[in-house]
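Check the record.
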Amino acid sequence: MAVGVSFDFRAMRLIVGGEMSQWWGGMAVAVIFGLTFATLMTLIVVPTLYSAMAGLSHAVGAVEARAETADMPFAEPDAVKETLAEDRV
């Protein structure tokens, strides 16, 4: 399809070029480009975005946890853990 070679089953011969090869050539380029784009999106872009969102979520959670513990000036470490555990439930 992409190289412009056809096989004629009636005459049992290979045809290089021809009328239909021009149409199939453009179709082949579109299919190959689509498959390449989908592969890159699936294997590179989507996992990267998921990882970035997970890292951002973790960073925001850490900042919120620091803000909660900053409101308790002389709290014991165990009291801070209990307070954080209660907030998550």
